[in-house]
Specification:
By secondary structure, the protein is of the alpha/beta class. The protein contains 5 helices and 5 strands, in the order βααβαβαββα. The protein has a single domain, classed as Dehydroquinase, class II (Rossmann fold), CATH 3.40.50. Strand 3, helix 4 and strand 4 form a beta-alpha-beta unit.
């Protein structure tokens, strides 16, 4: 199984940005954690992070041509603003899990809207970076490739 792990704006600043909300784990720590989990599950994981909406759309579209089996995405602030990312996920028709490190349902009013959620098969929020592992497990367990 081949997964694409996509992180949107400011996730490269993990450990620095608002550690009270996002923890002290760095972005490199997150990648190592995910890689170790995927290795244990015998899953290939490709990683991509960008602060630019169009780059995220391009990478989601590329996943189609790469024959990716599932996408784990933390769109960051684009969760609440990007119809383009929603449309990209819908266009590739690849099972996609939405992840948020913090519990966005308990945050500012503008964070209550997730445009991407309607195209996702699974959402996890507020479980810290372990939410990525939950999303990966969900995609594995529901892939038919166990």
């Amino acid at each position: 199984m081949k997964l694409l792990i996509i992180n949107g704006p400011n996730l490269n600043m993990l450990g620095i940005r608002e550690p009270d909300k996002y923890g002290r784990e760095t972005y490199d720590d997150l990648l190592k954690k995910i890689k170790a989990h995927c290795d244990k599950k015998e899953v290939t994981a490709d990683f991509y992070q960008s602060n630019h909406e169009g780059d995220l759309v391009d990478r989601i579209q590329q996943a189609y041509w790469d024959k990716t089996d599932g996408i784990v995405v933390n769109p960051g602030a684009y969760t609440h603003t990007s119809i383009a990312i929603l449309d990209a996920v819908k266009s590739v028709n690849i099972p996609t899990a939405e992840v948020h490190i913090s519990d966005v349902s308990k945050r500012e009013d503008f964070r209550q809207v997730s445009y991407i959620r309607s195209a996702c098969c699974f959402t996890v929020m507020g479980h810290g970076t372990d939410g990525y592992l939950e999303a990966i497990d969900y995609l594995i367990d529901n892939s038919g490739e166990k």
